[in-house]
Specification:
This protein has 341 residues and is mainly alpha-helical. The N and C termini lie far apart (55 Å).
Length: 341
């Protein structure tokens, strides 16, 4: 029975996944596209009530998908799916915070936020597939690459601890948004104004990207930066590409609705940053100690932890941080993100 939290070369394999499981994922993506295509015909501001209802629907859909995973793939696969989904969902809160800063800094009209988030979700679904396939191939070829992934997560954990301690903003903004924005404006023709929900416009006879298109590109690049943490974390949970990717898909699909909910409650749940830092630290530890061999065949620790235990640790850290936030009122002050043109 596969009980490892961290994936090594010997553990990278494929479950016997029935064809209709793939069809379910494709069908859910198609339904999501149809729903959003209908709702974005007329841009409107998303209220907290509407966002909460849709967020619960997507969470329910993700949990419902776990049922056929347990029934047709296996108990271990189902447990891995739930753990991977929960990890991706939890880590995505950090990404949502940055998206909020981007929207605030560029004074994005609230009616356009949903459309822009949908572009971001479409890009995230594609790039997650690329990163997961590449990550599994690396783990299959080099078992010790798990140590490298663990060190990446450890750096992310340390950064999250600093942010939770009160050093939020300057380093993170400098590394991601400001540098990415300067790169975008340096190489792409950007017209720094919105033109409805158009992505391009004509300025003095020259075709240029609108500010909306530039922000979408910024969101996509920011998500790639966050994927450096989230993808290794998911690879640490499941040795199967279908489980890893499907868990990411169901976590990402609910991000649009979750964004509007998170915007209204983020100050109240201030301790979530500590919980996310603990999750990254835990997973990084498991990835570092998991391989039995290091580079050149040198012996390594080879410590494997059952995924059920890891799921329990994840629940304790996540729900514990929520409970702390409710009992100790200490909202975190956030700073607007200033982007230089």
């Amino acid at each position: 029975m596969l009980t490892s939290l961290a994936t090594t070369a010997s553990q990278v394999h494929h479950y016997n996944v029935p064809w209709f499981m793939y069809a379910i994922v494709v069908g859910v993506l198609a339904i999501y596209a149809l729903i959003e295509a209908k709702h974005t015909r007329r841009d409107h501001v998303i209220g907290t009530k509407e966002a909460t209802i849709w967020s619960l629907i997507y969470i329910g859909t993700a949990l419902a998908f776990a049922v056929p995973v347990f029934l047709f793939i296996g108990t271990q696969a189902g447990t891995e799916y739930l753990a991977a989904w929960a990890i991706e969902k939890a880590l995505s809160l950090d990404n949502l915070f940055v998206m909020g800063l981007i929207f605030t800094s560029f004074k994005v009209p609230p009616a356009l936020e949903r459309r822009m988030l949908n572009y971001g979700i479409a890009g995230a679904i594609f790039f997650r597939l690329v990163f997961i396939i590449a990550g599994f191939q690396l783990l299959k070829t080099f078992a010790w690459i798990s140590i490298f992934f663990g060190l990446i997560l450890l750096r992310g954990a340390w950064k999250a601890f600093r942010e939770a301690h009160g050093n939020w903003g300057e380093e993170k903004i400098e590394i991601t948004e400001q540098r990415l924005w300067k790169t975008i404006t340096k190489y792409l023709p950007i017209h720094h104004q919105f033109n409805g929900h158009k992505l391009t416009t004509i300025v003095k006879g020259k075709r240029m990207l609108t500010l909306m298109a530039a922000i979408i590109i910024l969101i996509e690049l920011s998500d790639i930066v966050f994927a450096v943490d989230s993808v290794p974390a998911v690879l640490a949970v499941s040795p199967d590409r279908f489980i890893a990717y499907s868990s990411n898909v169901f976590a990402i699909l609910g991000l649009r609705a979750l964004f509007f909910v998170y915007q209204s409650i983020s100050d109240r749940f201030w301790a979530l940053e500590w919980g996310l830092a603990g999750i990254l630290a835990w997973i990084s530890f498991k990835m570092i100690v998991a391989p039995t061999e290091f580079i050149f065949g040198l012996p390594w620790i080879g410590l494997h932890i059952p995924v059920g235990i890891s799921l329990g640790v994840l629940a304790i850290l996540l729900f514990g941080s929520v409970a702390i936030s409710l009992f100790w009122k200490q909202p975190m002050a956030t700073k607007p993100l200033h982007i230089e043109d």
